[in-house]
Structure formats: C-alpha cells, structure tokens
What we know:
By secondary structure, chain A is α/β, with parallel strands linked by helices. In chain A, helix 4 (154-164) packs across helix 5 (179-191), helix 6 packs parallel to helix 8 and helix 9 crosses helix 10. Chain A has helices at 7-17, 20-26, 137-140, 154-164, 179-191, 206-213, 228-235, 239-252, 270-283, 309-321; strands at residues 47-48, 52-54, 60-62, 70-71, 82-85, 88-91, 99-104, 118-123, 166-170, 196-200, 218-222, 255-262, 290-294, 327-330, 340-341, 348-353, 356-360, 362-363, 366-367. The N and C termini of chain A lie far apart (46 Å). Chain B is an alpha/beta fold. Chain B has one domain: Rossmann fold. Helix content of chain B is 31%, strand content 19%. Chain B contains ten helices and 14 strands. Chain B has helices at 16-31, 36-41, 66-78, 93-98, 115-118, 136-141, 184-190, 192-197, 233-251, 264-271; strands spanning 2-3, 8-10, 13-14, 50-53, 86-90, 111-114, 125-126, 131-132, 144-147, 150-154, 158-160, 198-209, 226-230, 287-288. The A-B interface holds A 1, 6-8, 57-58, 67, 70, 72-80, 130, 132, 137, 141-143, 145-146, 236, 299-300 and B 57-59, 116, 119-120, 122-124, 126, 130-131, 155-156, 171-172, 174-175, 177-178, 212, 214-215, 217.
Amino acid sequence: MMKGFSRRDFVRGCAGSGCALAMGASMGGLVLLSPRQARAGETPRPHPARFWKGLDNKRVQCQLCPKQCLVEDRERGFCGVRENRGGEYVTLVWGQPCAVHVDPIEKKPLFHFLPGSRAFSLATAGCNLECKCCQNWDISQSRPEEVDWQWMPPEEVARRAKAEGACVTFTYSEPIVFLEYCIDTAIAAHKLGVRTTMVSGGSGEVEPMKEACKVLDAVKIDLKGFTEDYYRKLCKGKLAPVLKTIETVRQSGVWLELVHLCIPGANDGESEIRDMCRWVKTHLGADVPLHFTRFSPQYQMKNVPPTPFETLIRCRDIAQAEGLHYVYTGNVPGIEGENTYCPRCKKVVVARHGFHVEAVDLKAGHCAFCGQTIPGIWS
Amino acid sequence: MVRAKQALSHGYDADRGALRAMLGAGLAALAGTSDGLSGLRRYFRPGQTVGLKINGLAGRNAATHVELVDELSALLRQMDIGGHQQVVFDRFASDLTASGFALNERGDGYRCTGNDALGYEEEPAVMPSSASRLARVLTERVDAVLNLPVLKQHMLSGMSGALKNQFGCIHNPNKMHLDKCDPYISEVNALPAIRQKQRLIVMDALRPVVDNGPSYQPGMGEVANALLFAVDPVAADVVGLELLEELRRKRGLPSLDKVDLAPTHIATSARMGLGVGERGAIDVVFIEV
C-alpha cells in the first residue's frame, strides 16, 4: 500500500472515476459511494430500533439475533450498529447505506429468481458474526462512523431500484443488523411493484425473521458450515439458530437458496457435506438450491489456499447423490455446475457463464423440453 | 497500592494535594527511587510522546479522574515531556468530554483526543481468535503508553482493569465481549503495539464501581481512596480484583465467581506470558499517605 494513500482512498477514488464496476468482482461486490455522496465522519442518525426489551438500570436486551446482547446505557451490542441511549434502543444505520450498487442477481447468487435480472444492492455497516474469511470485512466489521455512507431512506431506495429495473437486495454485510431498514424498504419497494431479496448469514431470532419474510420475495442464506465448532471458532456464532432461520424462511414460502463456501480443511470434509445435504433434504426438501462456492484467501484467512475445483465438484456430487435436485458450483466460471438442469430429463434449462445468463429454456416455470416444474420465481 | 484517606474531597472530585502525595509515594516505591519524579523517569524519557490511556466509557462518575491525569501531566512536564507530547486518549471524543476532559489539539496543556479523530489502521491486526484495527493514536502518534484504567466490576468480563482498558485501543471491542471477553482481552494485550508501548499502569481505584458495572449506577461506587501502581498489567489486575472483592464483601455482595463472573481473562493472560497471575508471586507494597 502506498504511503498516505489507503485502500479505502483507492476504493473511493475508483468509485468516482467509474472503476467501481471493474473493482466489484475482485472485491467481492463491495460497493462504493461516490465522493460527492459520501458522508465520511458524519454522525449517524439514530432511528428507533425494534426487537428489544428494556431492563433495569437503563439496560436493554437486544432480541434481534441469538446473541441477545445485554447493552448498557451508551453502549452497543456485538454488531456495533445498535445503541442504548438512556434505556432506549436505536439503530444507527437506518437509511444510511455504505454500499450501493447494481449487480446481476446471479452474483448473490440467486439462480431460481428472475435469471438475468438486476439487483439494486445495498448494505450498511455492521454484522452480528465475525467470519474469519469475510470478504467485506471493511464494512461488516466496522461501526457506522467508520464508513462512508449516504442518506437513502426506503422510498428513495425503492424509487432508484425501480428506475434501474431492478429488485432490491439487502446484501454485502449482514442485513439482519439493519432489519428495520430492510423491512421498511421492502414495504416501500412493494408499493412500487419492486421485489426484494436478502442475502444473509441467517443468524437471527425467529420472530424478526418472520417479520422480514412477510415483505421479502427471496432469501439466500449462507450455511457456512455444518458443525457448531465451525461456527464458534470461525464465525463467533452458532449453527443451530442459522438452521432455525433457514427453516423459518422455508416455511414462510419465501423463495430460499443456500450457499456453502467451501474452505479447504475447515468445512469441506465429506461427512460434514453429506450431513448438511441430508439435513437440507430432510428439513427443506430436495428442491431448495444449494450452491458450493469457491473460497479465496481473505481477511483473517489469507494463509488458506483457494478451494480446489475438485473439492467443489466432489461436494456437488455428494449433494446430488443425496438426492438434491439443484446443486451448483460458484466462483468458478465455465464449469457445468453453473447451469440449471431439469431433474427429470437432465437437459439444461438455464445456461450460465459466470454471472451471465446465456439461455433460458423454461416455459411458465416448467422445463421447455419435458414439462417438469422447476421451482423458483421466473417472472 | 497507595491509599490516602482524603483522596476524594467530596463525592467524585479528587483532592489534588492528596493525589500528588500518592503519586509521589507510589512511583517512588514502584521504581525504587527516592521520589516520584525520579520514579517516572524510569518509565519515560524526555522527547517521547506519551499516551495516557484513560477510561471514559462510563462518564464522569466512573471515569479516570481528571485530577489524576492533571497531576501526572504536571510530573511529565517536569521531566521535559511537554503538553504537546502528552496525548490523553480514549475511544471517542464524546467519552472524553463526558468524563470531564477538555478536547485539545493545539492549545496549552496536554493534548486530548478521541480515537475517532485520527482513526484506525487500515489493515487489521490478526489474532488467534479475532482481528482488530488499532487506533492510530497508539500506533502512529505516541511512543509509550501510561495506562490509566478504572477499577470496575463488569457485567460481561467480571472485572475491568488494566488489561481490559486496552479494548479502548481497537476499533471493534463490541466483537470481543463473548465468552466473558476471554481470550479476547488477553490476545489484544499480546499485540506488539500494545504490549511494547505500555510502560506504566496507574489504576484509578479511588472509587471503584463494585457492581452493575461497567457503567455507573447510583450507589455502586465504593470509596477506596486507592491508586495501584504497576508495570505488569496482569499483576495489577490480580491485586485490583482482590480489592474489588474486598469492597464487594463490605457491601454484602457475593464473590464474582459465585455469580459466574470470575474474570478468567486474568489467568489466561498469565498463561500467555503477559504477566504474573499468581497472587503469591506478586510483591504488593501497601502505603498510606
């Protein structure tokens, strides 16, 4: 890094000069505000939080996620974006995204949701996990004061998404920590006929997630591992609440896809993958898409090599052998695991290369070749 | 440990004369010198920029006393470390002002700034269990640190003292409060920038928060009129914990381990080689002034 010129400066500069799109892929989708829009160093605006209860001595307990943080007056919880102010809990990120960008929906990835469409994607600072492999740690592990943000209330997000012909996607960091903003934005978007999706680690409490599911159209959840040990050591989280969230989303009827980032030696063991696939089939059914994606060294795991292609293929083979119908490989363009295959006639019904959709052979949600129903939201 | 019956003049405010005497006696005893100024010279050199890491989290009722910082600042000036070479800091400017400190970047007297002014390192320091960006005040602006914690019970870690006060040097202490902050406190203290720059600890135990901490709740401050001097943060916390437990007993409060709040990070820090955790191996000198 050049002296006196930080990575953040570089990122900001790129945003202003039109390099943002090119940067997007290499930075895992971290997006960029133009210097004109950015409000670096400005005090975040408080907004009443939901999902908490007051305790004695002006303490509050957050009930948004399983951490259930006990928060003292003038303090914040684990996520760093919700603050106790004299016994009243506020969110400091409502309407204040630090990352806004239009992505292909395939980048989320959501493969059974309007293929080839665009996602008006946004994030705020903060996360309720701390994954050692986080590709967006600059924003997810920061407090609102430490990032550039812009004022973008829900109606503005909805209007801009509609103008882009895109859905709204809450992504990049952890939407659960800005759930009030997500819900309000989703309501505003629906009023304009704009659909909404969420990309989440799934570490939320049941009731808030049920609330969110009432206004979302699709959710992608990262099932980061399938052992409590993995979540505890590598994410500062727990597996059980994530599984509960996944079931909650599934039961709500909101379209659901899962992603498992395969990290060599950490969560790619055959038995772990098999157990995970069996759980998916048993608890969610064979039709929930499961993506195995390639890890690249990031953040606290720069010493771990990228996932070998063979590992992704092996994981996909295991999942298919366990009876899952829609299994994908990701972050590796040009291999067959990018395509959607009809589970009956085995023909390609959606052909992809990277984030680009090359062909869609579906008719009203059915295989164009054999008529098999292909679950998802296609129009 | 130095105690003075008149250290707290009324309520929160400290008596400067008493503090001056306590500092003189404590620094001399710790360094084995004839007076406090000579003692301070063992830990800091003229020309250095010294960071005074206070604890301002809980506001004026449970923060490092301004009077204590003022007296230490005066001593530092006597050894040719001027006000512009003294930087009083904590996480937020708002915490400093809420604790009675006046923000000061250019005026007379010591500098006083929140980490939020200068910001944090671009890249995180990676630890076994986590990662943090260090405050630039610590990494770029100061050569040595005088750690000025407040002795407090803490509802998550059990106790806040010398070790935990270093959470104020990182950008994400909110990520470090799981599992009673253990091993996070220890790992932060093991970071070279923190460990190598810390020269001296003066723990403010004039009126420790004995329960419902780390914030200040009315009635939870117990006058102890004590300052603890150390160069070893682990030993400082061992002795601080002993005092905290003594004060809790006086109040009829249970021992911290009886309420599942034993500060395990102290033993972890000792195991990591950050200091001496065994009470029997710590030479504690009790002084009354």
